[in-house]
Amino acid sequence: MIDSLINKDIELFIYLNNLGTTQWDGFWLFTSNKYSAIPLYLILLFLTYKQFGLKKTFVALLFVVLLIAFSDQTSNLFKYGFKRLRPCHNENISHLIRLVGNRCGGLYGYFSAHAANSMAIAVFFGLLLRSKLKNLFPILIVWAMVVSYSRIYLGVHYPLDVVTGMLIGLIYASLFYVFFKAFLKKFMN
User: Fold this and answer.
1) Which of 46, 85, 115, 184 is the most exposed place for a label (fewest CB within 10 A)?
2) Domain layout of the chain by residue ranges
3) Rounded to an integer, what distance in angstroms lies between the CA atom of residue 125 and that of residue 41?
4) Is the separation of the CB atoms in 126 and 143 below 8 Å?
5) How many Å apart are CA 113 and CA 151, to the nearest integer?
6) Got the DSSP string for 43-90?
7) Which is nearest to 67 in space by CA: 180, 164, 184?
8) 10-residue block means of pLDDT along the chain (189 residues)?
9) Nearest CA-CA partner of 98 in 23, 4, 8
10) How far, in Å, are 1, 2, 71, 91 from residue 8 at the CA level?
11) Is residue 126 left, alpha or beta, with left meaning phi > 0 and alpha meaning psi from -120 to 50?
């Protein structure tokens, strides 16, 4: 059953990855670049500040830093625990894929830290700001999904890497949001 799932994952990856065209490569490289989201992060911090003030924004920022660190380190544990080669390092399929950009990333790719981190940020801030900005949550989820898909497009992650990363990001963000609310209730009321 696991082998069948992995084979389907590889087939889906090859299909989705080969949908790409050189006209869109720049967009997906930009989307996947961790620095391209800095304006979004600044907007989210500003919106948090407007809703909660400086002290609570600072606490929220600390929780986000811990959330991303936790998500990143879990991704590394999985990558070196499962040792699943990235598609661009898999000699059996590397000739069938489009590797966009000049680097493939580390040897192992299960699960995608990009997908986990972007979903974690989307869910945490979506939950945090939903009472005043109801439409923000779905926009952030779409942004996280686009960032996640970029990893398939670029040829560096399988769909299962991305879906797992998104689920981990969702779970961690939900937990950290609960911890954040509990912290505020206990120490900042």
Assistant:
1) 46
2) 2-103+112-187
3) 10
4) no
5) 10
6) HHHHHHHHHHHHHHHHHHHHHHHHHHHHHHHHHHHHHHHH-PBPGGG-
7) 180
8) 90 95 95 94 96 95 97 95 92 91 86 96 97 94 97 96 98 97 88
9) 23
10) 11, 10, 26, 17
11) alpha
Q: Are 141 and 126 in contact (CB under 8 A)?
A: yes
Q: Which amino acid is at 56?
A: K
User: CB neighbours of 118 closer than 8 A, spacing ≥ 6?
Assistant: 37, 143, 144, 147, 148, 169
pLDDT of residue 116: 97
pTM greater than 0.85 (yes/no) = yes
Q: What is the pLDDT of residue 188?
A: 79
Task: Provide the token pair at 155.
Answer: 């040829």
- Residue 63, both tokens: 């929780």
DSSP character for 108?
Answer: B
| Long-range contacts at 129-135 (CB < 8 A, ≥ 24 apart) | 129/44, 129/47, 129/48, 129/51, 131/51, 132/51, 133/47
User: Helix-strand-coil percent breakdown of the chain, rounded to 5?
Assistant: 75, 0, 20
pLDDT at residue 59 in the model? 96
